[in-house]
Amino acid sequence: MKECIEKAKVLIEALPYIKEFYGKTVVIKYGGSAMIDEKIKETVMQDIILMKLVGINPVIVHGGGPEINNALKQMGKQSEFINGLRITDKETMEIVEMVLSGKVNKNIVSHIQNQGINAVGISGKDGATLESEKRLVDDKDVGFVGEIINVNTKLITTLIQTDFIPVIAPIGIDKEGNSYNINADYAAVAVAGALKAQKLVFLTDVEGVLKDVSDSSSIISSLLVRDVDEYIKDGIISGGMIPKVECCVEGVKKGVKTVHILDGRVQHCLLLEVFTQRGVGTMIEE
């Protein structure tokens, strides 16, 4: 009986959050260990399905770097990066699109539909959802690497309105029909901003923003946009966390109410963040 009462208390705690987020859109950037570890992947899918069942509109934007690396290796191609962006010639772009729009995207859709929830996998090319142009890196042409210049939300909103979970592969398209490899973080920010999402959640392989990187208990639970530059200047936000936090700031500036960096290695991290008082990870807001 005691165990049942504790479960009831958990449900009661979640009620105000279910009410607050009912009918709202939450964009989830899905990547890292949460895509690789089968046990974690299962809990992420369960979290997203529960969100959908209680009236929240989840939208998934996914990466797939490890899968792309494996595919390129099998093809005898070496992966090269500049500033974290993959150098993408025509052959590499074909492989990237095959892996992201095909294998990875459809695998996520299958996981969701196996739980009895409707999902549709699209790439940014479908409905010209992610209009893009070539991106130069340090004034260098790195091939078919793109940046998003516009998000057409019609297809995404149609899927939401017809009770599907959109699963988006970050492949862009330009006016000439060329495909572009888009960084999944940037794609998630652009999509969340265009949809004016209530939340944008990044599933990562870190606990969040830490005051001391050697101390996981020093997590900064809430961070204001105006304080980010100072944290970078002081070295609290450094290394690979800088572009991640800058993406979060860009999301807030584009109209997303709150942006979250969550440790995707923690089971049910999405439910802990959305439906509990304590939450997990770092929340960035205006």
Describe the structure.
The protein has 286 residues and is an alpha/beta fold. It has one domain (22-285): Carbamate kinase (3-Layer(aba) Sandwich). The chain contains ten helices and 14 strands. It has helices at 2-21, 33-36, 38-53, 65-74, 90-113, 154-161, 184-195, 228-233, 241-253, 269-275; strands at residues 25-30, 57-62, 81-82, 85-86, 119-123, 130-137, 140-151, 165-169, 171-173, 179-181, 199-204, 222-224, 258-263, 282-285. The protein has an eight-stranded mixed sheet, with helices on both faces. β6 (130-137) and β7 form a beta hairpin. α4 (65-74) packs across α5 and α7 (184-195) packs parallel to α9. The termini are far apart.
Helix and strand element order: HEHHEHEEHEEEHEEEHEEHHEHE
Uncertain residue ranges: none
Q: Output the CATH topology.
A: Carbamate kinase
CATH architecture: 3-Layer(aba) Sandwich
What is the rounded Rg? 19 Å
Number of strands: 14
Q: Which sequence of strands runs across the widest sheet?
A: 5-8-2-1-11-13-14-12
Beta-strand fraction estimate: 15-25%
Main sheet characteristics: 8 strands, mixed
Arithmetic mean of pLDDT: 90
Fourth CATH level, the homologous superfamily: Acetylglutamate kinase-like
- Class computed from helices, strands and strand pairing: alpha/beta
Number of domains: 1
Distance between the termini: 44 Å
Share of residues in helices = 40-55%
Count every helix, treating DSSP H or I runs of 4 or more residues as helices: 10
Shape: globular
